Amino acid sequence: MNKRFVVTLILITLAVIFISSGVKNLALKRGLRLTDKIDSKNIMTLYKNAMDAYSAGDHDRAIRFFENLVQRFPDAEVAEESFINLTKSYKAKKDYAGAKKTLERFIERFPDPEDAARIQSDIEEINMNILLSDVITNESFSYQIKPGDTLAGIASKFNTTVELLKRSNTLKSDLILPGKSLKVSKIKFKILVNKSENILALKKQTGETIKTYIVATGENLTTPTGTFKIEEKLISPVWYKVGAVVKPDSAEYELGSRWIGLSISGYGIHGTNNLASIGKHITKGCIRMSNDDVEELYAIVPAGTTVTIIE
Question: Which domains does the chain have, with CATH numbers?
Answer without folding.
Answer: 1-131 (1.25.40.10), 140-185 (3.10.350.10), 189-310 (2.40.440.10)
